[in-house]
Amino acid sequence: MKSIEPAIKADERPRAGEKILRVARDLFYRQGIRAIGVDEIVRRAGVTKPSLYRSFPSKDELAASYLRQYDLEFWARFDAAVAAHPGNPRAQIAAFLTRIGKRTQKPDYRGCGMTNAAVEYPERGHPARVVSEANKQELRRRLRAMAAAMGAGDADTLGDGLLLLIEGAYISGQLFGAGGPAKSVARNADLLIEASLKK
């Protein structure tokens, strides 16, 4: 006897998965990954739990998928700042950090999703932690390379100093909000660069 259950169309799964990921991204960013349960995600997405688990084998994998998407968007912003100032790493960094400084002043700012996930998941092998660490390692590598391209005598120390300023902006943006110290992250980075290049 033929099943009377409607067949799931091939194009329905990606749509459900995209909807789930969109809802999870918003909730994870605003409230934290651990704070949000699967029940809340499926309720807000208007799907069933089986739909979620067809697209994402576990909540951990959903969190990692959210962060992989966040990673792509992060590098798109970074690369846009680089492309806007070809051959000028100092201006590239200034452009990228000016944008961060502006974002930290918005009322709904919750910092960097990568940083937040790394704090939430201290276990080294957790899928969300793995994505976060890879993003931060690549950012460190790029900043050090940009510092070297600027001619810094100690490029690694300058690159690391810039990374510390960026991470500080992410956190202080959440603590102080509008008018806080994160708004001047680009200016502080430029002062650090200037001091490093004079040595």
TrEMBL record:
Q: Which GO terms describe its molecular function?
A: DNA binding
- Return the InterPro entries for the record: Homeodomain-like_sf, HTH_TetR, Tet_transcr_reg_TetR-rel_C_sf
A Pfam family (short name) is TetR_N
Protein name from the UniProt record: Transcriptional regulator, TetR family
Keywords tagged on the record: DNA-binding, Transcription, Transcription regulation
Where is the DNA-binding region?
A: 37-56
The HTH tetR-type domain covers which part of the protein? 14-74
Q: Which domain of life is it from?
A: Bacteria
Which residues span the membrane?
A: none
